[in-house]
Amino acid sequence: MGVVxxxxxxxxxxxxxxxxxxxxxxTWTSTDGAHAIDLCRNPHTRPDVLLVDxxxxxxxxxxxxxxxxxxxxxxxLVCITSxxxxxxxxxxxxxxxxxxxxxxxxxxxxxxxxxxxxxxxxLSPVAGVVFHDVDTTDSKSVSxxxxxxxxxxxxxxxxxxxxxxxxxxxxPSARELQISRMLADGMETDAIxxxxxxxxxxxxxxxKRACSKLGARNRANLxxxxxxxxxL
Length: 232
Fold this sequence. Notes:
Layout: E1 2-4, H1 8-19, E2 28-30, H2 33-41, E3 49-53, H3 61-70, E4 76-81, H4 85-94, E5 99-102, H5 106-117, H6 174-184, H7 189-196, H8 200-214, H9 219-228
Parallel strand pairs: 1-2, 1-3, 3-4, 4-5
C-alpha cells in the first residue's frame, strides 16, 4: 500500500504504526499528492490501497482521490483526517473513496485498509453519506497467497461507482479553515497576514472562498456557520 500526507512527521509516524499491523505492507510514502498520483499511475508502483490525508496542500486529498478514481487506476482509497469526519465524508465518497477514518483511530484505519484491499467499503460515519464497494467479480484477487494476504502491490479491482445521499456543501480547504479559526479567535486581517506570511489580498481571497463554499453572507456569518458545523 501507499501513504500520502504532506506532514512529514505524521507520515513517518503513520508508516511506523502501519508496519506493525498484521496483513499490511507499506511499499511507499509521499508528501506530495501529485507524486502519489504518478506512483499510482505506474503499474510497477501502483498499490492495492492508498491512504490519503484529506487536508493536504496544494493538492487536497479529495482531488488526489478524484483523479485516481477518474483514471480508473483500480486503487482502493482510504481517507484519513484530523478534522471531524463529517467535514470531509461526503467529499471523500464523491471522490471514489471506500472509507474515511480519523487519524487517531488506528484499529479503524487497519480495518478500512483491509476492506478496501478486497474492494469493500466501510459503513459511513456520517448519516446520508454512502461509500460503495468495488466490483471485484472479474478482477484479480488483491491479496494472493504468495504474500500471505498482505496488502502490498497492484490492485485488481475496477473503480467504484459512488453515490452520496443528500450531498453536503463543499467544505473549505485546510488553509481556509485555518484563517477562519484565526478570525474567530479575534485576530485582525493584518495580524493573520503577518502570522501566515501572506498578503492581505490573499487572506481576503481565502475568506471569500470559504464564504462561497459555505454560503456565508459575510465573515461574521462564516464564523457562525463554521461553529455550527464543528469546523472551528
